[in-house]
Amino acid sequence: MKANELKKLSKAELDAKLLELKDELFKLRFQQAINQLDNPMRISAVKKDIARVKTVIRDNELHGAQG
Q1: Which domain holds residue 25?
Q2: What is the CATH number for 31?
Q3: To 5 degrees, how large is the angle CA 39–CA 19–CA 25?
């Protein structure tokens, strides 16, 4: 998911997306632990998506406080 797409979402949608991504990361790590993970690169992609969502949330907090 791109940062431009995330900036268009509301705070509630961003929070929901963050929970969804964290759940997916948990499931991927569980699959990796029992050696059933097909694509190990998906873990790093999900981590980066989580970081993007958190960055957009923080950016909204900072700009909301200034504006």
Answers
A1: 3-61
A2: 1.10.287.310
A3: 20
Q: Could you tell me the two tokens for 6?
A: 């995330």
pTM across the whole model = 0.89
Tell me whether residue 29 is in a domain: yes
DSSP 9-61: S-HHHHHHHHHHHHHHHHHHHHHHHTT--S-THHHHHHHHHHHHHHHHHHHHH
Q: Is residue 18 part of a domain?
A: yes
Q: pLDDT tens digit string along 8-59? A: 999 999 999 999 999 999 999 999 999 999 999 999 999 999 999 999 999 9
